[in-house]
Amino acid sequence: MSTPVAIPAFNLLAQPIQDVLTGSARVGGAFATKENRVSINTVTADGIILSAQALGATPSTASTTLSVIHAPAKGLVLSSILGSGGATTLGATLTPASVPGLTASLSADPFAAASASPGSDAALSTLKASVDYAPPGGLMHFRASAGGGAGIDVSAVFAAAGPTLLIGGSATIGAASASGGSVAAALTGWSIGGAWSRMVESKGDGPASRQQLTATLTEAGTSKGRSLGIMAAQQVGASGRTTVAADCVLPLRAAKGVETGPSAVGSVALAVSHRLDTGGLAKAKVSHDGAISLLYEARIQEAVRLGTTVHLDPSAGFAPRLGISVDLSP
Questions:
Q1: Residue 71 within a domain
Q2: Are the CB atoms for 298 and 305 separated by under 8 Å?
Q3: The domain containing residue 68 runs over which residues?
Q4: Is 245 within a domain?
Q5: Burial of 215 by CB count in 10 Å (0-12 exposed, 13-18 middle, 19+ buried)?
Q6: Alpha-carbon distance 38 to 52, whole Å?
Q7: What is the pLDDT of residue 303?
Q8: Which of 124, 163, 179, 251 is the most exposed place for a label (fewest CB within 10 A)?
Q9: Span 175-196, mean pLDDT?
Q10: Interatomic CA distance for residues 330 and 303, integer angstroms
């Protein structure tokens, strides 16, 4: 009997496509951005995950972060992020065995108050909390999060046809001025969308090919306009090692006070990813504004992965921004 596929949170509906278009620390293949980046990830013999990153246009302006993640007990994960500017984020994630499918997370900067002016709520403003509930059976995923001055965000995803078709939406509730100078809760943003995927029987020895399509209609308040986002990915060939992905954002209503112009065109990006026979990874991406990103990731040993990436931006005269990553995770 097969295990039901876990339903993702609404903000992760397009994660498989996003992994091709931008990459991530979880799966590798992260493209360089408009700043140079150097990162290293490893896991100690005690199971502690360490990640260090330096990001900046020049060495003198680079900011560094160190992330430490440890699971001291079953169902409990502790994390800390230390920044070069003194910012520190401590977090904890609890997955109780007594409530299958429930995950609760809490994070904050406990030292923010020390550097803030007296009487400010700097420490409280860094507090973030989230609760995820995806009951066994793979039918839905509910998420609620708050903190960081972004209001309360609530989202839900439902399986309309098993894991093949997922539909959902999210709403952000924040504070708004009311009559008489009072403050009341108001809907400050919303989003609805769905994800469709199709598995195709493999004709070779590799994994089954996959097609995926997501569409999301988003309104981030009247001041930011409304847009339609469409993302698609297609694995090519019987082996499934090559994937083509595209991302398109179409503005449906201009933001308040914004004149129509180049910004009304939206954005388009196309990426190709190919997994090599050696276990390495080659990727390329081009955007509508002419920006080009290239990446090559080589597996040196079973647990050593070295990645190099370059980003060429026409707005910066195609001056290359480089990225180097070393992953020592088993």
A1: yes
A2: yes
A3: 10-112+124-327
A4: yes
A5: middle
A6: 8
A7: 74
A8: 179
A9: 77
A10: 5
Give the chain's end-to-end CA distance (angstroms, integer). 29
The string of pLDDT tens digits covering residues 38-80 is: 888 899 888 899 999 888 877 777 788 999 999 999 999 999 9
Residue 22: CB atoms within 10 Å: 18
- DSSP characters over 49-113: EEEEEEEESSGGG-EEEEEEEEEEETTEEEEEEEETTS-EEEEEEE--TTSTTEEEEEEE-TTHH
Query: Among candidates 66, 110, 73, which has minimal Cα distance to 91?
Result: 110
Reduced to 3 states (helix: H, G, I; strand: E, B; else coil), residue 225 is: coil
Burial of 306 (0-12, 13-18, 19+ CB in 10 A): middle
Residue 4 pLDDT grade (very low, low, confident, very high; cuts 50, 70, 90) = low
Residue 181: per-residue pLDDT: 60
Q: In degrees rounded to 5, what are phi and psi of residue 301?
A: -130, 180
Residue 70, in any domain of the structure: yes
What CATH number is associated with residue 105?
A: 2.40.160.10
Retrieve residue 111's tokens.
């030292």
Amino acid 299: pLDDT: 85
Residue 261 pLDDT grade (very low, low, confident, very high; cuts 50, 70, 90): very low
How many whole angstroms separate alpha carbon 283 and alpha carbon 273? 4
- State the average pLDDT over residues 303-319: 85
**Number of folded domains in the chain?**
1
Q: Which amino acid is at 304?
A: V
Interatomic CA distance for residues 87 and 269, integer angstroms: 33
Within a domain: residue 54? Answer: yes
Helix, coil or strand: residue 152 = strand
| Gap between the Cα atoms of 308 and 322, Å rounded | 7
